[in-house]
From TrEMBL:
It comes from the Eukaryota. One of its GO terms (molecular function) is oxidoreductase activity, acting on single donors with incorporation of molecular oxygen, incorporation of two atoms of oxygen. Residues 307-347 are annotated as: Disordered. Transmembrane segments: none annotated. This is Intradiol ring-cleavage dioxygenase. Residues 1-17 form the signal peptide. Keywords: Dioxygenase, Oxidoreductase, Signal. Residues 314-327 have a biased composition (Gly residues).
Length: 347
């Protein structure tokens, strides 16, 4: 393996934790966010030398990400060739697990985040990364809502696809196996996330207690989004694509030189083989937020229940429900070759 092709920068795609996802156009709130990001960035800049030297953390990041690519490429080489390719709402109480795909069609992805304490320059061990995104046709699991697929399909209350929680290791790293998100009206392609500290794991493998130190979203490169959206089943969604440039949440998240966009490589020759994406997220562990939620996962499935004060909806305007997303889950093959200029390291 040519490691220079896998020399992923430790702080590539750094995302700064911020004071929640309030989407009202409130100047005081926007100034508060900006000041927080500037302070966090100064802290992260001061951390850079320590992060590079600390116990070989940069070297471990390079080797870990290279090993991840090799691992999933070996799985591709060993798979049966006859096998087919396989909302914005936070639902409290999702299962602790690393594989979120279930039976969802679309481009398979492996995503990795490394969480760094911006105050101490240390990786955050024991943080629980809570993630969710819509499926390939713009539908979120675990809820029934106008614009979220077929509102007559009550089985979606019990669905858990593309949602889950996992714990960071000693290097502050968490990985998930998921599916590249589709889109719905008014939003670009994105993942939602909440970061929990000092939470307790219940016997049913869900979380309780602790505090939330981060609420945010992570995005993908626009050219890559276009390539994915040209494949099946993404191309069955006839709702117009909102680009990163036209997405107000993306604009807010990426202001002040913050870069909430996954770095990525192809795992094989084309999109059907999947993608590996990674990002480093700087978190102020002293911060505490109270994210709102619309549903709660219980032993009987999802139930409608609202709470919290900080919006994580991330919709256009004031962050309401998604409008659109056709709710289909077709099966079929994917296509889309690696574009020229995209890093595609050889195993």
């Amino acid at each position: 393996m040519q490691l220079n092709k896998l020399a992923f920068a430790l702080l590539a795609g750094v995302t700064l934790a911020h004071p929640g996802e309030e989407h009202h156009h409130d100047r005081a709130v926007e100034l508060s966010k900006r000041e927080f990001k500037q302070a966090a960035r100064r802290g992260l800049s001061a951390c850079s030398e320590k992060l590079n030297k600390r116990d070989g953390m940069l070297d471990r990041a390079v080797m870990r990400r290279a090993a991840t690519v090799v691992k999933y490429r070996k799985q591709l080489a060993a798979r049966d060739t006859d096998t087919g390719e396989t909302g914005p709402y936070w639902v409290k109480g999702e299962y602790i697990r690393n594989n979120l795909r279930e039976d969802q069609p679309g481009v398979p992805i492996v995503i990795e985040a490394q969480f760094v304490d911006v105050e101490t320059c240390q990786p955050i061990q024991g943080l629980y990364w809570d993630v969710w995104n819509c499926n390939s046709t713009g539908v979120y699991s675990g809820l029934i809502a106008t614009g979220n697929g077929n509102t007559d399909d009550l089985t979606n209350y019990n669905a858990t696809f593309l949602r889950g929680v996992a714990k960071s290791n000693c290097d502050g790293v968490v990985q998930f196996e998921s599916v590249f998100p589709g889109h719905y009206s008014g939003r670009t392609t994105h993942h939602h996330m909440v970061a929990h500290l000092n939470a307790t794991v219940l016997p049913n493998n869900t979380l309780t207690g602790g505090t939330v130190a981060h609420v945010g979203q992570v995005f993908w490169d626009q050219d890559l989004i276009y390539d994915v959206e040209a494949t099946y089943p993404y191309n069955t969604n006839d709702i117009a694509i909102t680009t990163n440039a036209d997405d107000r949440v993306f604009s807010t998240e990426s202001s002040d030189n913050s870069d909430p966009v996954f770095e990525y490589v192809y795992l094989g020759d084309d999109l059907s083989d999947g993608l590996f994406g990674w990002v480093t997220i700087a978190v102020n562990t002293s911060a505490t937020y109270d994210p709102n939620y619309s549903f709660v996962w219980t032993e009987s499935g999802g139930i409608a229940q609202s709470g919290g004060t900080v919006s994580v909806d991330g919709g256009s305007g004031d962050g309401g429900a998604p409008s659109g997303g056709n709710g289909t889950s077709p099966s079929g093959s994917l296509s889309g070759a690696v574009p020229s200029g995209t890093a595609a390291p050889s195993a």
